[in-house]
Amino acid sequence: MSDYIQENTKEIPVKYQPDVAVAGGGIAGIAAALAAARNGADVLLIEKQCMVGGLATSGLIAGYLPLCDGYGHQVSYGIAEELLRLSIRYGAQSEVPLAWLEKKEETEKQKKRYEVQFNPQYMALLTEQQLIKEHVHILYDSQICGVTCKDDRIAELLVENKSGRLAVRAKTYVDATGDADLYWYAKHPTRLFSKGNILAGWYYFYDGVQVKLRPLGFAEVFEEEKKNTVKPLVNRRFYGVDGQEISELLLLSHEAVLKDIMEMKKEKPAMEPVSIAGMPQLRMTRCIQGEYELKETDNDVDFPDSVGMIADWRKRGMVYEIPYRSLYSKKLGNVISAGRCICTDDGMWDISRVIPPCAVTGEAAGTAAAMTTDFGELSYERLAKRLRRQGQKLKISEIE
Ligand SMILES: Cc1cc2nc3c(=O)[nH]c(=O)nc-3n(C[C@H](O)[C@H](O)[C@H](O)COP(=O)(O)OP(=O)(O)OC[C@H]3O[C@@H](n4cnc5c(N)ncnc54)[C@H](O)[C@@H]3O)c2cc1C
């Protein structure tokens, strides 16, 4: 449709003026907000849902993928490890794998990767408590719907909530929206995931004895790479940046979940659904075009500006340093990205989008956001020193 209306010019109150505004409260946003607050910043976290955690909580993703390389060596530390431990404080899994808890020999640690299953509800409640404890101001039920720009910087975020439209003016901004929304609103180049996403419908159910996760649409296996035949729920892929398409995705996902419940009920009449996802279960949507595009083939590369390490959750032995340059673009000086929208190629995206990398990039972005008002100008040496002080290991050569 080519019909347009003109929106009336209106006065918008600047309601918040924090040092750091974190856009999106998923794992990356939580890590960024905690890191920025710990580095002395006054932090506002803006979240459109009514809980923090994003896909990991509202999206019902309950597997905290590995902090280790699969050969018994931990690679991700800092807030990534802190959140893993927080996620299981009261269940679903009672402890981290024993070999890791007891700091056993590497041969023992190889048998079970450093990963856990957690309860998304606890995760949402506990991370919220942690943010409050560390004086992060959380603005819920508030959608960022635009930005104003001045001199290649974001001046304000435009936010809609029950109060109407308001503005947030910060010194620096962390784009942890998962979809690079801030960059997109600022008309900075972004990139879509070329293959699109399969339909997912993960939900929790009670089987008459216990509550279980049903990962419907489980594997992200592309047609041509398929070795086993996991049938997709629908023959369609989703890009996740169009309102109409997202609505269709949600309708199809709900339909698939209901159908699955009815099928399961035939075999187990006592079975009842407990919770369905409160947000679209999209893995890779839109990412920034930063100073360096991290590639799947960059495993073992020694980057001069590494801000942390991550492992490939799919393949043992694949370790990546994350260059600071993949988090920002010099053309948008006071904005940095974190989580599943940092600058990567398609192959790397499937590695960097999962929970531990989102926490690692979130911690780096939040720390940097508290230290500078221009990410391209920040001294890497100062940033690295801070990150190390916070417990992060940055270099593959430091792996023990
Ligand atoms: C089906 C599926 C299965 C998965 N399985 C696993 C798994 O087993 N283990 C694992 O580690 N990872 C898994 N993942 C990936 C992982 O859960 C996510 O990629 C990761 O949690 C993303 O974190 P994030 O903070 O970058 O983004 P998100 O979790 O997407 O958080 C972004 C947040 O920003 C908010 N937001 C977005 N736009 C705006 C806006 N304009 N204004 C205000 N707020 C906004 C959103 O509401 C959301 O809370 C899975 C993902 C999917 C979809």
UniProtKB/TrEMBL annotation:
<protein>
    <submittedName>
        <fullName>Putative thiazole biosynthetic enzyme</fullName>
        <ecNumber>5.3.1.29</ecNumber>
    </submittedName>
</protein>
<keyword id="KW-0413">Isomerase</keyword>
<dbReference type="Pfam" id="PF12831">
    <property type="entry name" value="FAD_oxidored"/>
</dbReference>
<keyword id="KW-0479">Metal-binding</keyword>
<dbReference type="GO" id="GO:0051539">
    <property type="term" value="F:4 iron, 4 sulfur cluster binding"/>
</dbReference>
<dbReference type="GO" id="GO:0043917">
    <property type="term" value="F:ribose 1,5-bisphosphate isomerase activity"/>
</dbReference>
<dbReference type="GO" id="GO:0046872">
    <property type="term" value="F:metal ion binding"/>
</dbReference>
<keyword id="KW-0411">Iron-sulfur</keyword>
<dbReference type="GO" id="GO:0016491">
    <property type="term" value="F:oxidoreductase activity"/>
</dbReference>
<keyword id="KW-0560">Oxidoreductase</keyword>
<dbReference type="InterPro" id="IPR039650">
    <property type="entry name" value="HdrA-like"/>
</dbReference>
<dbReference type="InterPro" id="IPR036188">
    <property type="entry name" value="FAD/NAD-bd_sf"/>
</dbReference>
<keyword id="KW-0408">Iron</keyword>
<keyword id="KW-0004">4Fe-4S</keyword>
